[in-house]
Amino acid sequence: MTDSPFQSFWWGGYECTDQLNAFGNRVDFLPLTGHLQLLDQDYTDLGQFQVKTVREGIRWAFIEKTPYHYDWSTVKTMLDAGQRHGIQQVWDMCHFGFPDDLTPLHPMFARRFAALCRAFVDFYRSERPEGTLIVTPINEVSFLSWAGGEVRATSPYGVRLGWEVKYALMRAYIEGVVALREADPSIRILTTEPLVNVVAPHDATPQQKREAKQHHEWQYQATDILAGRVSPELGGRPEFMDIIGFNYYYDNQWEVGSGRRLGWNDPHPDSRWRNLRELLKEGHRRYGRPVALTETSHPGIDRPLWLKMIGRECAAAIQQGVPLLGVCLYPIVDRPDWDFLDHWHHSGMWDAALHPDGPPHRILHQPSAEALHEAQATVSAVLDRKPALALS
Q: Hey, which of 198, 329, 366, 374 has its CA 20 to 30 A from 121?
């Protein structure tokens, strides 16, 4: 895969949200998970899985304490660690969090975000003048607009404001892309939106079928805006669609109306369940761009089964012509719940052993490690038989 901008097909993702949670409390997951304190260990640990690419976040809320003044010291610490270990870092500008004085509905939100993007490129290139820089402007606009605009799970704590929040986030996203590309035309843009399957109930009425189809279609709304297909007044353009990232979890398929999740590993599969390969193919065909699985994991004891399934489905997608450039295990180190910080998800390749006087220690989940090696072998067997995937 010589045309891929990523150093490895398999990536690690470190939970980096700095958002306000449902109780209005600021969370900061880089130190909570111990990643900030254990950067060297975390990057060294990746070697046993040949992972050379990671997703990281700058933590906007902590970078810009005063408008238009930025403290890049923590990002520099992370950059230096990446250089020491030969790790490629893909950067999120906004991973759900923004400064205390901003919400997506603030009239200066987009301008402040664009300024942040320009300042980041200036800082980054002062440290790393060479090499490919890959950036995600805003992570999961679809989820963030639902969480902040519909269910009061984060700022701006709205109800029935999902479209307004999404529209404002995409205004900022597009202005951010313009700023990034003006500062460095070589920058690659990686979107990271949820990949879902919304279905009608069994024996559905025509109205329910239409509703399910509409809800399924809405998963592409943010990327359609970025491409200029929806709300073109925001300035979206087809060339802004670069690498299309999809975030896919065990609960990403559900029934419209009831919200009932479709089981991914039921003894008798639901006939409405769609394999990941089909969803990836649908997303690729919609935009004609290379794709990546930018987040995936499973909590608890089913972690290994999920990883093996991901390996099989990604191999099948590649065999069917999907230009799949990578898979990100997110989180690769376990994380707590945003709202209840004493509840850990047990969804990483490494669990966290908590210590009151220091950062969480790492405990490799051996069944997941074995499953990942199997998944890697499954995908490698296909990639070794494929020519390099073109980026167009």
A: 329
Task: Please name which of 253, 255, 248, 161 lies closest in space to residue 211, comparing C-alpha atoms.
Answer: 255
State how far Cα 12 lies from the chain centre: 11
Tokens, residue 143: 């989820």
How far is residue 212 from each of residues 150, 200, 278, measured CA to CA in Å?
Answer: 19, 5, 17
Express each pLDDT in 238-263 by its tens digit. 999 999 999 999 999 999 999 999 99
Cα–Cα distance, 102 to 138 (Å, whole number): 15
Q: Is the separation of the CB atoms in 183 and 129 below 8 Å?
A: no
Torsional class of 271: left (φ above 0), alpha (ψ -120 to 50), beta (otherwise): alpha
CB within 8 A of 288, min separation 6: which ones?
392
Among 13-22, 106-115, 133-142, 351-360, where is mean pLDDT lowest? 351-360
- Is 226 within 8 Å of 241 (Cβ atoms)? yes
Give the single-character DSSP code of 224: H
pTM, 2 dp: 0.95
> What would the two tokens of residue 285 be?
């065909």
Q: What is the 3-state secondary structure (H, E, C) of 125-142?
A: HHHCCCCCCEEEEECCHH
Which two tokens mark 199? 């279905």
Rounded Cα distance, 10 and 297, in Å: 13
Burial profile 209-230: b = 16 or more Cβ within 10 angstroms, e = fewer: eebbeebbebbbbbbbbbbbbb
At 228, list the tokens. 């200029």
Give the model confidence (pLDDT) of 282-293 as tens digits.
999 999 999 999
